[in-house]
Amino acid sequence: TVKKVESSKEFKDLKKDLKGLFLSDGFILVEKQNYDSGDYGEWQVDYFEPDSGCMFSFTTTKGKISVQKSTDIVKSEEQVHKLNLDKLKVGFNSILDEAENLRNKKYQNEKPYKIIIVIQNKHKKDIWNITYLTSSFKTLNLKIDAETGETIEESLKPLISFG
Q1: Residue 34, by phi and psi: left (phi above 0), alpha (psi -120 to 50) or beta?
Q2: For the chain, how big is the Rg over CA atoms in Å?
Q3: Which of 35, 58, 71, 134 has its CB surrounded by the most CB atoms within 10 Å?
Q4: Taking every pair of C-alpha atoms in the chain, what is the biggest distance, in angstroms?
Q5: DSSP structure string for 68-131
């Protein structure tokens, strides 16, 4: 998706005006029934421009690229770090398998209905941030190092605790 976006006219036109634009994250929401079939849906990739403090979200739907600008989310560059895809050693399919294996081993009673997957840079480290929304109204969150595949953090919390 990143290659498609960065080779698009929409991205190239934006990059002409915003020289500091950089990739900050990728996001996908997977319905459990689609996960089982291997049809994951479309990624959203976000680019941050530090001078303006704006985030630009690109999506590809049926081959068409669209971009949306957001000014309210990001207030300072310290909140957003550059995602370095060259350091990404553990890919999407591998990370899904690893997350599912961990969920099946330690949290087998937590049946997911949606899976939120984000690749991002937190604290100068590229991580996969995977959140399962479960049928028992809990969230299982896994943070996995994108370079080593090591699980950094895992937590299971009731959704009500986010209220």
Answers
A1: alpha
A2: 17
A3: 58
A4: 50
A5: EEESSS---GGG-----GGG--S-HHHHHHHHHHHHHHH-TT--EEEEEEEEEEETTEEEEEEE
pLDDT tens, residue by residue, 89-123: 998 889 988 999 999 999 999 999 899 999 999 87
Secondary-structure percent of the chain, ordered helix, strand, coil, rounded to 5: 30, 40, 30
pTM of the model: 0.88
Long-range contacts at 148-152 (CB < 8 A, ≥ 24 apart): 148/89, 148/90, 149/89, 149/90, 149/94, 149/95, 149/98, 151/102, 152/125, 152/127
The pair of structure tokens assigned to 122 is 């937190």
Integer angstrom CA distances of residue 17 from 25, 41, 54: 21, 31, 13
Separation between Cα atoms, residue 48 and residue 14, nearest integer Å: 11
